[in-house]
Amino acid sequence: MQPEQDIPGKTLQTLKFRPKGMTITEIARALGANRNSVSKHLEVMQAAGQVEARLVGNAKVYSVAQRIPLSAFLCFTKNLILVLDTDLAIVQANDRCLAQFGRPKEELAGQNIRDADLPVVSSPEALAVVEGLEREQVIADIAHRRDDGSESFYQMQAIPTTFEGGEKGCTIVLEDITERKRYTRNMALLARTAMELVDLPPVDIYQYILDRLTELVPGAYAYLFSYNEPHQQFVMRAVAGEGAREMLAEILGRDPIGLIIPIARIFDTPYHETPLSIRGLREYVFRPIPSSWSFYDLCFGAVPEEVCEEILTRFDVAKMYVIGLVWREQLFGIAGIFLRPGRELENRETIESFTRQASIALARRQTAERLQRSEARFRNMVDSSPFGVALIDCERRFVYVNRRFVEIFGYGPDEAPTVAEWTRLIFPDEEARREALGAWRSDLERSVPGQVRPRTFTVRCRDGSKKTVLSRFVTLCDGTEYSTCEDITEETRAYRLLVADIADLRRREQELLIKDQAIASTRRAVAFLDPDGVVTYANAAFLALWGYPDPKDVQESHFSRFWERPDDIKDVINTVIGGGFWHGELAGLRSGGEKFRADLLGTPIVAEGGRVIGMMAAATFRPNGD
């Protein structure tokens, strides 16, 4: 029977030649020892880390523990490693850990991490993990903010550890995951800002941009100037950093927001910079050895030199980074970041990517503001028009009407949002409404986009009055209907009175001279037609407009001869001779074959007793585009 004290040594010697392991029974048989004694010693050896056990079916199979010397592990790993005893006193630390903490091994050995004031591991988050450690390994991410405001991130592994003598302890492994964490956070920030800048509410976009920049450079001070291109001025729009605005106001003796710096001189001699050349990040060192440009130079003399020096001192500035907000060769502003001594700028690529995003957002916002101003000017212009104006979409709904439109008819989109409802209001008589809609459809079928379709209608307004309205419809390329309406009620009444006077003059021989003078002196082209549509008289304006030198060239000719579409003129003549009147725009045909647009008013000449004895045609030249 093996002595009890020899069992652990003999067991390790036996297992060394059995790499696949042995059960308790096999070990006891090989040693010639009692099975219970072997089992008891194996449990102690397993707790001490000398052997390992695995289950094979219902049996435990033991093998020699594969152990690496801790000193070798500490030397060759790139991670920071601390070994603690059960009371959290430091037993050992690798060289990387000592270099990172800047402490000698003699100072750390035996010191409790609660009192050691070490970065990361002495933080409340790390202590909570270590103090709560039981039998399983725990992994946690720990953030550490340095004195200069920058951040680093570590993944901490707390591993339960058993020492040679069986004492319990803990091994802390710190892996620097700052770059990985920073990359993930930066990509998340760029994704977030890309969405936010698209639908950014009406907030101060400059302050938003600067807040995101300081989010990328924690603890730094920053500023942002917008560029006023018409005045070639840079205006400070935002500052960021704890107490930055108040401190600057104290130094400058004024609120820094609104401060104007003549940075535009950089585009002139001798600098000859361009928006594209200042788009990237530029570094300017002030301390300890200044670069070629001082801070006073970068302020272009707009801030006194002693004030510039005080700003550098109060803000503890060692260097400054400047980047232009540029998109498609257009400059929208310049941002600057102040860094303290010993600190380097991180996230350069992310800063430049975000700056591109911000520049695009500024360009989009500037375009939107210009469009809004343009739309406002257009609406003011249209609202001031003497004509009623309406825009009608493809679904026959009013998109826009000006004030004059509502004044003419008395109805607006609130009372009649669709053309169908509006038509029922201004044409309460069903037959008149049907005729008006038929005329509108007929004109639409014969027209092409961009062609003006004039029509004169008699409508009933909201106050019950009747008005004669000259309407001109145009179909735009996108299907939108553009309509102008002109109230010609008084003009029509005046024409009717003129026609009555002329008819009376024709019946009275003694007033023939008055008739000739009145018609001859008017600037309108006037012609009289008999009931068959033959020209019996034409004034000088008519001859000049159509290009005929002698009245005989037009007299005894049918009126349709002088128009591009004779059939349309015959319809007009039939309408007027039938007792109605006609007003619209048609294409005339001059003597040389040249076409022109003319506004034509056809009015019946009525004798006593109401009999129509002819027609008076009055035409006015319409330049193209009217």
UniProtKB/TrEMBL annotation:
Q: Could you tell me which InterPro entries the record lists for this protein?
A: ArsR-like_HTH (IPR011991), Biofilm_reg_signaling (IPR052155), GAF-like_dom_sf (IPR029016), PAS (IPR000014), PAS-like_dom_sf (IPR035965), PAS_4 (IPR013656), WH-like_DNA-bd_sf (IPR036388), WH_DNA-bd_sf (IPR036390)
Asked if the keyword Transferase belongs to this entry, the reply reads yes
Molecular function terms, GO-annotated: DNA binding; kinase activity
A biological process from GO: regulation of DNA-templated transcription
Q: Which residues form the PAS domain?
A: 374-451
| Annotated CDD domains | HTH_ARSR (cd00090), PAS (cd00130)
Keyword field? Kinase, Transcription, Transcription regulation, Transferase
Instruction: Output the PANTHER family linked to this UniProt entry.
Output: BIOFILM ARCHITECTURE MAINTENANCE PROTEIN MBAA, DIGUANYLATE CYCLASE DGCP
Name this protein carries in UniProt: Histidine kinase
Q: From which source organism is this entry?
A: Methanoculleus sediminis
